[in-house]
Amino acid sequence: FVLTPGNPQWKDTNLTYRIENYTPDLPRADVDHAIENAFQLWSNVSPLTFTKVFEGQADIMISFVRGDHHDNSPFDGPGGNLAHAFQPGPGIGGDAHFDEDERWTNNYLEYNLYRVAAHELGHSLGLSHSTDIGALMYPNYIFSGDVQLSQDDISGIQAIYGPSPNPIQPTGPQTPQTCDNKLTFDAVTTIRGEVMFFKDRFYMRANSFYPEVELNFISVFWPHLPNGLQAAYEVVDRDEIRFFKGNKYWAFQGMKMLHGYPKNIHRSFGIPTTVKSIDAAVSDENTGKTYFFVAKKYWRYDEYKQSMDAGYPKMIADDFPGIGNKVDAVFQKDGFFYFFLGTRQYKFDPKTKRILSLQKANSWFKC
Amino acid sequence: FPAATSETQEQDEEMVQKYLENYYNLKSDGKQIERRRNSGPVVEKLKQMQEFFGLEVTGKPDAETLNKMKEPRCGVPDVAQ
């Protein structure tokens, strides 16, 4: 996190706000709700309180304006700058302006007012832009389906105002660090020749053309997917990627979700209803066989026949010796299976049924 | 990959200039960014921007940098003077 230069802050922790006017893009109640929720994010993790007032000067004045609105920082029409806010202080200090030339929404369409308000109010309270892409205070608009303070935002606001009076200190999600030795994955799959790693709200993508590992929100590519995926695999022949969470799965060609999804894993694959979720999945592109790993067992599905092979489930330990009892993620590359178990990664030859090497889970990131 | 047309290049240069003026306090003298420039305020500001966003720090407006600049974002007047 980054504090505003000079570390400006409100002396009084009980602050007032007023919504001076409303965007016509949303019902008034939705605007009220978005702003109230945005304040609540910050009050939940700090000693700050916010009271809405309906007339006169409030500490934080909120308005929807367009173009030159006489604060030396004109807006620029649709896109580009979405909003801005001023650091704590009297007069214009703390005020938040939203560009009325944007379309404000209460959903995943651009631009979600709650998401932008939560960010701007961080400025109103004394935070500057964070370099953590998972933080609300990251300067660029990213909407991942939910709006929450990351641990970086919480650490920032508490650096200014101290901890929350709540006896249980709130914590927030951490953004994965690609070179963290303790990094684990929810799912890994090939996608059109690349390998993508999934963790919480994020994907990581190592590409030989770029020196840095790309880390961004899953929603950037697949806004319909939930966070916290549990398994993913690619059917190369069909140019199809399937993502799993709970008893549902979603199928995509590139970024386009196929019609009729999400579907149910029990009905589609014939997985027993006692199975609540899939730990990991991989499709062998040479045989068209897809392996679903669930706790100590695995099932095998034939992508050509579109039916589960007979004789399954079997024990992972019997057919993948050394792999253990529970798999986090698996993918296939150059004929080998790469299994992820916690911070470990096993390169496995399915032909000889032998482990060829053991590496750190994040070995693909050239740390 | 087809080469960018000169018109696209000019638009990109304008965008870089405007972005750095808006968000990195680049002082404008009304001139476009000079090509083949490898030092000076534009390069320094570009490096700052690239470092901030975790991009490769080249000081050049490469494709990744341009893409990042094109993303909608929060405006800058966080500091009230």
What does this structure look like?
Chain A has 367 residues and is an alpha+beta fold. Chain A has helices at 28-43, 113-124, 151-161, 218-221, 265-269, 316-319; strands at 14-19, 49-52, 60-65, 83-85, 96-99, 187-191, 194-199, 202-206, 214-217, 231-235, 240-245, 248-253, 256-257, 263-264, 280-284, 289-294, 297-302, 307-308, 314-315, 329-333, 336-341, 344-349, 354-360. In chain A, the strands form five sheets. Chain A has a five-stranded mixed beta sheet, with helices on one face. In chain A, strands 10, 11, 12, 13 and 14 form a five-stranded antiparallel beta sheet that branches. The longest helix of chain A is centred in the first third of the chain and has 16 residues, at 28-43. Chain B has helices spanning 6-23, 41-52, 63-70. Chain B is mainly α. The longest helix of chain B is centred in the N-terminal third of the chain and has 18 residues, at 6-23. At the A-B interface, strand 4 and helix 2 of A face loops of B.
Class based on secondary structure composition and strand pairing of chain B: mainly alpha
Task: Specify Rg of chain A, calculated over alpha carbons.
Answer: 24 Å
| Helix coverage percent of chain A | 10-25%
User: How much beta of chain A, percentage-wise?
Assistant: 25-35%
Give the topology string of chain A: H per helix, E per strand. Answer: EHEEEEHHEEEEHEEEEEHEEEEEHEEEE
Mean pLDDT of chain A: 96
Oligomer: heterodimer
- Report the count of strand segments of chain B: 0
Low-confidence stretches of chain B: 33-37
The end-to-end distance of chain B, rounded to whole angstroms, is: 46 Å
Order of neighbouring strands in the sheet with most strands of chain A:
2-1-3-5-4
Question: If interface size is counted as residues with C-beta under 8 Å from the partner's C-beta, which chains form the largest one?
Answer: A-B, 36 and 19 residues
Given the C-alpha coordinates, what overall shape of chain B results?
A: globular
How much is the average pLDDT of chain B?
78
The Rg value of chain B, from CA coordinates, equals: 13 Å
Q: Give the helix proportion of chain B (percent range).
A: 40-55%
Number of strands of chain A: 23
What is the number of helices of chain B? 3
Enumerate the spans of chain A where pLDDT stays under 50 for 5 or more consecutive residues.
none
What overall form of chain A do the CA principal axes indicate? elongated
